[in-house]
Each structure stands twice: as C-alpha cells, then as structure tokens.
Amino acid sequence: MKRVIQSSLFVTLALFTLAVFFYTGLPNFAIAGGTGGKPPEVEPEVPKKVVEVKEEYPIVAKPMGFKSEWPQQFELGEYEKQLGRKLIFNENPMFAKQVQAGKLTRLEKRLPEEPLVVMPYDEIGKYGGTLRGASKALESGTSEILSWRQVNLVRLGDDLHTIVPNVAKAWKWNDDYTEITFWLRKGHKWSDGKPFTTDDVLFYINDIIKNKEYSPVVTSYWNIGGKPVEVEKTDDVTFKFKFAEPYPGFLFYLGAGGYFAAYAPKHFLKEYHIDYNINAEKLARENGFDDWVTYFSVHWSKWKDTLTSSPYGLGVPTLESHILEVEPNTQRRIFIANPYYFKVDTAGNQLPYIDKHHERFLQEEVWNMEIMNGNLDQKAQNVSLSTYPVLKENEKKGNYRVELPPGQTGACVVFNQTHKDPVLRKIYSDVRFLQAMSLAMNRGELNEVILLGLAKAEQALPLNVPFVTDKDKNYMIEYNPARANQLLDRMGLRKGADGIRLRSDGKPVTILWEYSTQFTGSEFVALVSDYWKAVGVNVVAKEVTTETLRNKAKDNNVDINMEWDVPYEPNLISDPGLYRPPYSDICPLMGVPWRDWIDSNGERGEEPPDWVKRLHELGKEFKTVLPGSDRYMEIGREMVRINLEHMTIIGTNGERPNPTVISNRLGNVTKWSIQNYNYGRTYPFRADQWYFKE
Questions:
Q1: Do 552 and 608 share a domain, yes or no?
Q2: Is residue 114 domain-resident?
Q3: Is-cis flag, bond preceding 352, omega within 30?
Q4: Read out DSSP for 292-359?
Q5: Which of 32, 256, 269, 530 is most buried, by CB atoms within 10 Å?
Q6: What are phi and psi of 42, to 5 degrees?
Q7: Roughly what angle, to the nearest 10 degrees, separates helices 481-490 and 431-439?
Q8: What does DSSP say about strands 238-242 and 322-324: parallel, antiparallel, or unpaired?
C-alpha cells in the first residue's frame, strides 16, 4: 500500500543574518475588503481549557521509540499495539454542553472507528483560542487560511515528497498504475453527523466531474489516455479509480495542495441535482436561479473556498477541521472546530486544538500594521519581500517571528510567439530576439533594488525537480548588452535616428507591455523597460487589471504575459501542461492558436511548429511514467532543453524567500521548509495540531 517517494533535497544558503534553506531538487520517487481596525471578536483569547496529560505520549520531538508506517502519524491499531492498551478519547470542552444537552453525541460516536492518530510536533496541545489571519477579500488571497483547515484523501508530508494517508486510511496500486484502490475509515462522518462513504466519491466523479450538463469537459486531471476516469464501488469504505493509461502521479494531484477534495456530500447535494430530484429546475427558479446547474454551483465548487464565501456555505457539510460558523461578509469570516473531525493526538485528544479561525479582509497596506501590533497570528501569502526589514525590526513589539522559507520566484517574461501582428510574431518567434531580451536584463540590479539582494539570478524553470541542472538555471542570464545588440543586428533590426530599432515595415520595434501588479510591480517593469530601450527596443508600459490581462491573453491579444505559476515537482507531475504552450488555462502565456489546433485535431487554430508538438507528446507521456524512473528523467530533461532552446519563458531571479510571520503564542509550528501555493501553503505542516501556549 505504501508508495514512498525517496528524496535528496539539501542545499543551504545564508541570507542576511538568517540561515534559510533552499531546495534545489526534490528526489527520485519510489512509489491559496475591509480597511483594518480590530473588532472585539479578534482580541487574543487566552486558552483556559487545558488538556490534562498525566503521562508522556510520543511527539515528533520525542517519539519515545514508537514506530509508525507513515511519518508522524499512526493508524489506531498500530498505535494501540505499541501503547499497550486501548486509547481513551478526550474531546474539546467547547462541545461538552452540547453533548450534555443531547445536541451532539458523545465523542466515541462522532469519531471514526479508526481515527487517524497524529504526533504533535513539540507537545500535547491545549484547547481554545482564535487563530487570526488576513486575506485581501472573499476569494482573493485566501488559499493560506483555507490551508489551515484543508483535507483530502491523502496528504503531502512535511518532507515535501512523501504522500501519507489522511481521509483515506490506505491505498494500493495495481501493477501498471492504471487502477488504485482506496480504503476509507469506517464510521467517518460529515460535519453534520451524516456518514461519509464511498457513495460520496462516486457522486463526485459520476454526478459532478462526468455530468455533461454540469461539466461539459472532463478536466485533464480526471481524463487520462483520452478517457474519463471510472470509479468502482466495492463496499461503503472501499472503491477503485480506473484509468485508461498509467497515472502514477495521481496521488500528487490529490495530496499536494490542490485546494479541492475528491468527494462531495451526496446526502446534502442530491436535492439540487437534476439526476436525483426531478424538481431541481423548479427549486432553482424558486430561489432566483436560472437552472439547476447555477443553483447547484452555490452549494458545490471544486475551489473549496467558494463554498464559504456566501451564506450558502453555512449549510454545506465538510470534512475539514473547521466549519463556517456565521454568515460571511466583506469584513470577515469565522470558522469553528468541526465536532466530527477524524483525527486525534497521541494522548487521545480530538483535534483541532484551536477553537476558531478568524479571517479578516484587509487592504494590503494595513497588513504590516496589524502584524506589528500583534493582531495576526500567521501570515505569509502575498507578504512582499520588501516588507521584511520592517517586519524583522518589530518582532519583539508584535510578539512574533519572521522566517524566510523559499518557495517563490522572481518575475518572468513571456513573449507572444503567436501574436496577431505578423511582423511582431516573426520578431517574437526569433530565438535571437528572445536571447537578446534575456541578455539585456541586469538581474543583479533587479535583485538588489527589488528583492533586497536575497534572490539569485536564474532562468525560470520547474522547481525542486531532479532533472534541472545549474547549467540550465544559468542559461543566458549574464548581463551582456553588447551581445544583445549583436543578436538584434543579425536579425536585421537596424536602429533609427533615435536609437530605436525598426521593423521590416519601417515602424519602430515597440513592445506594448500590459501588466498586472498581482504578478509584478511597476518598478520591475520600469527597470526592464530601460534595459530593453538601451539596446534599441522601445517599450510602452501600461498597468491593467488581472481580469483584463487574462481576457486579452485568452484572446491571443498581448505582447507579453507574466502569469506563470512556476511548477514544482508535485504539480508538474499531475499537470505537465504547465510546461508546454500555452502553459496555463487561466491566463495563457502564449500559443493559444497552437493549443486550439491540437485540442481540435487540426480543425481549429493554427498548426504549431514541431517543437511545440514534441512538448505535447512529451507531456502526455510524462503523466504516465513512474516519478523518478529513468524515462521520467529523460522526459524531464528534454522538456527543459526544448523550452530553453526556444526561450519560451525568460526568468529573472529565483530562490526568492517568502516572509512568513508566526505569533510566538502559537505552539507546534514547525519551521517552514517551503512557502508556496503549489505545496498547499500550510497544508504539509499540519495546522490542525497548532495550539496557543498561553
């Protein structure tokens, strides 16, 4: 049942006066409003409900000789065998009155028959308190707080390469990785107390993912070898996913922080689904919706945070550690511990320890003040590296610490090689032009001016993968404007009287650089524009909204795009499309006509060049090979080579740390080894066992 990924992932880099660890290669594998203020409800709560621990229990810092099949956690049977007795379960005192009043059943009836036993990092925690965080607005910059409560069938461990059981207690692949069987926890319940069973997985696949009215196209993650996944029920706790081709990276799609869950509460959602309720259309119209699909959509979304962004979220059951407590608004969301959560610590205490999550929606310029005043307990998402000095200076005042884990990369630039202007298309497709634009950039200055000198000049490449070399990272990154000029001269782009080069039609070579500040700052655009102008390429910069940029990119109507969510190994394994044109579906970097041609088998779009076809072929195969195998390495190296040779994505600086703020009041918070959306933010580091020390 165990498919463990083996890793070598160690490189240390000194940054400022801190030692920050940066990963340069994940291993060979074996088997994601308001304006501030501090309302009374966010005052720090002092935990008063202490878990009584009369004997020692194993923790990560002191395992006491206990051995487990999976890192830092046990199945109940294997734990009790080593403990030498049955584990006695204890619940959060917050639920005691509800149990006494008969509103909740006792804890033993709420937990699965085999709850997951987890080892806290440093000590058995205390119950109580409110974990305070901040986001930009509903569904804007909220993935971090979502990751505090997130669960899925499996989870990526904090070593960032081992997939471990979570909602599912076990799994087993067949010999060729085309079928995987999962076993759930008998007696597991949704947050409303209803049974969670195999039927909830079947409902997710058959009635949502594969329902043509609701999902006209089956997403690539569930469409392998040109055929949608099949799911087969064995019994209430056992089921099997069946794929048309080998899909050994599937567990990484499930476990590496995708902010979704591969199941849905059938007992709740079937009322809104046309296949289960013949009156679903009538029900939708009675509630102000056009049809059952739109009404169903407010009760279910792949992006789990959508469900808790409206009053409808109050009624939707979840398996997460915390559930929506009150109706959300533009100022805040409040979540309360799930009384049916399926995990306990090694002393038998039901998790989570922390009673509530409080998420405020604040303008970014307010975040620093709130952090320095001690009003936020954990914050990393969208915290700019430029704020690090002032945050570091005020650690004592705010009673927090700032870590600098890796996980971010500097801005990258992608020229549209399928531009609608045939002259610009020819220029942007000429590798000499792309190499010149790379060589003309002063990455050292960009690092010092924008990134406090804490990053490292390198090309934009998949991160933490074993097939990217230092030579790849250093390809065409030197600051060499003389060589850039030579390359542009060889293209025949002669300079006019004003020093700006001329196109073949006599017009000046001018880049319209429309950018969103979600992906870069105006200072970066200004500096790079000056570098390019110095070699005779004019730039007209214009700030636009993210929505505008994405819409123009989908219409193949941009000169430059920058929204590349640089893939790490886990999400590259599950989605090789991140490293072939158009590199993104949300905001295509370039190559929209090529994608249309490939997707339509030549009926639409434009036939791509051979190198693009090759990348698509490699991507399809990459998804089917065993991570870490020889063929996996060969495909990875070839994908890197093709993209570098054609300079598809021009990088600036990498290994950029992401300031991460943690209150000193929080316990069981391990050192962040990475801080990135693609790893699920805090998901690998188990926020459900955090607690307040005082």
A1: yes
A2: yes
A3: yes
A4: HHHHHHTT--SSGGGGGGSGGGGT----SSEEE-S---SSEEEEEE-TT--EEETTSBBSP---EEEE
A5: 256
A6: -105, 10
A7: 160
A8: unpaired
What tokens does 143 get?
A: 């993935």
pLDDT above 90 (res 536): yes
Same domain assignment for residues 431 and 501? yes
Same domain for 418 and 453, yes or no, is yes
Instruction: Record the tokens describing residue 135, joined without a space.
Output: 């986001």
Show the tokens assigned to 519. 């992906």
- Nearest-10 crossing angle of helices 431-439, 422-429: 70
| Whether the predicted model's global pTM rises above the 0.85 cut | yes
229-288 pLDDT, tens digit each: 999 999 999 999 999 999 999 999 999 877 899 999 999 999 999 999 999 999 999 999
Please report, for the domain that includes residue 309, its CATH number. 3.40.190.10
Instruction: Choose among 216, 274, 263, 213: nearest CA to 236.
Output: 263
Three-class SS state of 631: helix
The string of pLDDT tens digits covering residues 67-125 is: 999 999 999 999 999 999 999 999 999 999 999 999 999 999 999 999 999 999 999 99
Do 555 and 666 belong together in one domain? no
The answer to whether 668 and 100 have CB atoms below 8 angstroms apart is no
By the 10 Å C-beta count (0-12 exposed, 13-18 middle, 19+ buried), 56 is classed as exposed
Q: Name the burial class of residue 392, with classes exposed (0-12), middle (13-18) and buried (19+) by CB atoms within 10 angstroms of its CB.
A: middle
Question: For residue 47, is pLDDT > 60?
Answer: no
**Helix residue ranges, H only, 563-625:** 569-574, 592-599, 610-622
Q: What is the pLDDT of residue 52?
A: 54
CB 657 within 8 A of CB 94: no
Where in the sequence is the domain holding 476, given as residue range(s)?
Answer: 414-654
Residue spans of alpha helices (H) in 600-669: 610-622, 630-645
Q: Looking at the structure, do residues 204 and 325 belong to the same domain, yes or no? A: yes
User: What is the per-residue pLDDT for 54?
Assistant: 62
What are the pLDDT digits (tens) for 508-533? 999 999 998 878 889 999 999 999 99
Nearest in space to 178 (alpha carbons), one of 217, 224, 220: 224
